[in-house]
Amino acid sequence: MMKVGFIGWRGMVGSVLMERMLAEKDFSGFEPVFATTSQIGQAGPDIGMKIPPLKDAFDPAMLKTMDIIVTCQGSDYTKKMYPLLRKSGWNGYWLDAASALRMEAGSVIILDPVNRTVIDQALADGKKDFIGGNCTVSLMLMGIGVLFQKNLIEWMTSMTYQAASGAGAKNMRELVSQMDMIGRASEEYLKDPESDIADLDRRVLQTMNHERFPVQHFGAPLAGSVIPWIDSPMENGQTREEWKGSAETNKILQTKSMIPIDGICVRIGAMRCHSQALTIKLTKDVPVDEIRGLISESNEWVKVIPNTKEDTLKYLSPAHVTGTLTVPVGRIRKMNLGREYLTLFTVGDQLLWGAAEPIRRMLLILLDHISS
Ligand code: HSE
């Protein structure tokens, strides 16, 4: 029976992956082996079947017995173990949620509802490294990938509204701690509806800028504010997150010539849904109804939201989308800039389609490929 090693299954992405695999009853037809970087010998997760105690995730001899390794452990682990395993001659499939190997020539960035043909070709060519994409890119492509596939996009800007979860579990806690501190500091003014709004405003601002306000992980207040910087700087003035928009989209789609994509990536006070406002320069004047039709038929998870206030408030927000696989695309309209300029807004759960779901689906594709 095929052996699949799971590493990093306890972290944020890993635990969402486990939840989804359990929900879809994926733990069958292969032998799962759970490894750990810190709790060797302890009991593994409850997956409804008997599994051996946790193995050592740093043991190359154990890893070499795997047909597939699925890691959500992060780039440091990948950088340490991947080269070691490949150098030792291990020829299994490496399925990774981290970014370390994404742009390597031999790697395929996976998002099967959008690039299944690229994945199938890679499998036929004997490629072995399949890597999950950047969450913002994957969510954008789940929403409007079809417009790229139909060659309708000349260039695009993506202005993002990224959730705390993209920065990590500690950041999610810090966001809520910030909200809590602001709430508690404002209590006396909130209780009294007659209180002066200027006093409430001043109290919020003082709290946010107080030395005890928790900013250890974000480096700045996020609750009541925004942080227009995500990841490390690039030489051209972009952040790495902004750079990924173009680099990864073009790699996922294997575009023949680079389609320019750029924008500003901004952290906002949502918990785990990323949102994006896109401006698209179309290659031709396509009617909005046609665009809506193309998007809504492109995959089973995308949902076109009518451009009304009522529908937008109800369906096009992190509050509505969190915890679901639905990718709503709304506010679709032509811009005053001209008939070839389209704008829209899309939202998606950063831990589902943005991270765990493409990995889960790719594991099934690999198991099917190996056994056929
Ligand atoms: N880099 C993303 C973010 C998450 O910071 O929101 C991972 O793709």
Describe the structure.
The protein has 372 residues and is of the alpha/beta class. It has twelve helices and 14 strands. It has helices at 12-23, 60-63, 75-87, 112-124, 135-149, 169-191, 197-208, 240-253, 288-296, 309-315, 318-321, 352-371; strands at 3-7, 31-36, 55-56, 68-71, 93-96, 107-110, 129-132, 153-162, 261-262, 265-267, 273-282, 302-304, 327-334, 341-349. A seven-stranded parallel beta sheet has the order 3-2-1-4-5-7-6. Strands 8, 9, 10, 11, 12, 13 and 14 form a seven-stranded mixed beta sheet that branches. The relative contact order is 0.15. Residues 134-135, 162, 166-167, 230, 241 line the site of L-homoserine.
Please outline the helices and strands.
Elements: E1 3-7, H1 12-23, E2 31-36, E3 55-56, H2 60-63, E4 68-71, H3 75-87, E5 93-96, E6 107-110, H4 112-124, E7 129-132, H5 135-149, E8 153-162, H6 169-191, H7 197-208, H8 240-253, E9 261-262, E10 265-267, E11 273-282, H9 288-296, E12 302-304, H10 309-315, H11 318-321, E13 327-334, E14 341-349, H12 352-371
Parallel strand pairs: 1-2, 1-4, 2-3, 4-5, 5-7, 6-7, 8-9, 8-10, 12-13
Antiparallel strand pairs: 8-11, 11-14, 13-14
Helix pairs in contact: 1-12, 5-8, 6-7
